[in-house]
Amino acid sequence: MNLFSYESRFSQVLLRLSISCWLNLLWFICSLPIITIGASTTALYSVMLKVADDNDSQVTSRFFKAFKENFPQATRLWLLMLGVGVILGLDGYIVSHMQSHTGGIPAVLWTLNLALLICAGVVYTIILLYVFPLTASVINTDFNMVKNSFLIGIRYLFATILVAAIHFAMFYVAVALFTPILIFGEGLVALLSSNLLVNIIRLCSGEGDKVNGALGE
């Protein structure tokens, strides 16, 4: 098979990289108001989950259609996650400045607070990794979206660790090694993550487009 033919593996990889670059640009532009990050991330995964499932046509129209359809719920979920993230960040800041160098009850309380903060941070991260891909895939209540994101993340813990590693690797490479990789940025992260998540979400939600009433209603 010709290396540059449309059906070749090389051409398919280039096509997906091009899609990730283009969708990263759309995601960035649509996320600029900050409040729309949830909707743009949901739209990004709506497209990338299809790309990972070898259905990559009309990516631009699908992105904006998903952005519009999911805007209310994705925005509510994003504001919730943002608020919780701010609280956890402030708690982490306080804990880091209250470290006790003495023994006794203050040291015990500080240790317990730190342990609770770490546990809450892990739960928060798992939900954040899954809630927008899940919103792009199924129809459910906000509460069930959050609950099922955590349950799926725990059930498929190895995939969760890999998705978290993809996000961390992109951040590390962009900051410490090769900043121009940001041209792919969240688009490439979503593409790689979707290849891990597409089968998981299909198993949990059923086949096809958004499934009404799936996952824990």
Q: In order across it, which strands form the biggest sheet?
A: 1-2
What is the number of beta strands?
A: 2
Mean pLDDT: 87
The helix fraction, in percent, is over 70%
Q: TL;DR of this structure?
A:
By secondary structure, the chain is mainly α.
Structure description:
The protein has 217 residues and is mainly α. It has helices spanning 9-31, 37-52, 59-96, 105-135, 142-155, 157-177, 185-205; strands at residues 138-139, 211-212. 76% of the residues lie in helices and 2% in strands. It has one domain. The chain is globular. A two-stranded parallel sheet has the order 1-2. α3 (59-96) packs antiparallel against α4.
Keywords:
mainly alpha, two-stranded parallel ribbon, 217 residues, 7 helices
Map the helices and strands.
Layout: H1 9-31, H2 37-52, H3 59-96, H4 105-135, E1 138-139, H5 142-155, H6 157-177, H7 185-205, E2 211-212
Parallel strand pairs: 1-2
